[in-house]
Amino acid sequence: MALLSFISAKIPNPPAPPRSLLRAVLPGNSRITMSSSVGADRHERSKLVWVWTESRQVMTAAVERGWSTFIFGSEPPSKELANEWSSIALIHPLFVEGSELFDVQGRRVATLYDVSSPQELELVRSDDKQADNVVITFSGEWQVIPAENMVAAFHGCKRTVLAVSTASSEAQVFLEALEQGLDGVVLKVEELGEVLKLKDYFDRRNEARNLLALTKATVTRVEVVGMGDRVCVDLCSLMRPGEGLLVGSFARGLFLVHSECLESNYIASRPFRVNAGPVHAYVAVPGGKTCYLSELQAGKEVVVVDQTGLQRTATVGRVKIESRPLILVEAKENSGHETYSIFLQNAETVGLVCPYEADKTTKTAIPVTSLKVGDNVMLRIQGGARHTGIEIQEFILEK
């Protein structure tokens, strides 16, 4: 096992403080809560982000985004840089001495390791001399398998494990490995864009912590119309009963279209698919934005929502556009007069999500072929004026 090599420093090497002291050393505002993308077992996990840089621009952007723990070398220029930044921003500097990280009081905060094989990783896991916080750099071209090995090796361990990442994309690998991810990352970059990308990643994932406000609407019109090019959206993840995509003819009112996860006598369940509507319709995507169904393609992300408004992001794996007979559905919010509409394929496997009832006496979804005036469905009401999918404040009339 090879320890990281750093320039020596004149920082004392005191005995390791107790666990309670180490926890106190870690600044809470360097943690970001990230939600799991798994619908069945959604939970929140706090992730640490430390930044290792000499760029003032990177430092400023990181502090503005809530990351205040920075790593410096122990040589005089690095200490001067730490002092300079501490005078202009509330930061928590950590200093490297050999294979250890110390805070400004000389207390050991973390142990550093350079790992290049599973055998070395096992030695790291079993090393009793390390601090409660472990920072690991992987040598080599592989990223995903080493990240998974790290998560597996330290599963159930009381130590906090971070991986050094030289790009936001690499950080994402460590944060998502084996679904759980590591406890955090050390973002070692000199480019401002990498900080912005990583924060954008957290923002998109953290949307799942906020419930979307859904409204009960009453169906006022159901009419079979002609043919149209409808879009089936196949995701890279599975959906449960009650989940679907928010789709509508107008961005101001999106219907919750149910997935094809329900069993039937005539066709197999496809819990990864939403038969979403025609090419012109809007669909909700992360960031409070919308895009046209015709714009979706493999690799893009959409927002999956359930009956209660619980949301998560999912990656599109495939989009199928085919000509099919359509049905027009119009609905009004129970307390309002605005009319909202959606076109859907006229088929028994296509349905709209019903309002959630705690006693579960109602159906999860109503097939459009059984839909009638007076039925209640779920609607997402929001601002209608959009520019490139972003909500803006302006007068708009759509009908």
From TrEMBL:
Any one Gene Ontology BP term: aromatic amino acid family biosynthetic process
Keyword Amino-acid biosynthesis attached: yes
GO molecular function, a single term: oxidoreductase activity
Domain 3-dehydroquinate synthase C-terminal: 217-399
Keywords: Amino-acid biosynthesis, Aromatic amino acid biosynthesis
Ranges of residues in domain 3-dehydroquinate synthase N-terminal: 47-202
InterPro entries: DHQS (IPR002812), DHQS/DOIS_N (IPR030960), DHQS_C (IPR056179)
PANTHER family: 3-DEHYDROQUINATE SYNTHASE, PTHR33563
Name under which the protein is recorded: Uncharacterized protein LOC105041704 isoform X1
Origin species: Elaeis guineensis var. tenera (Oil palm)
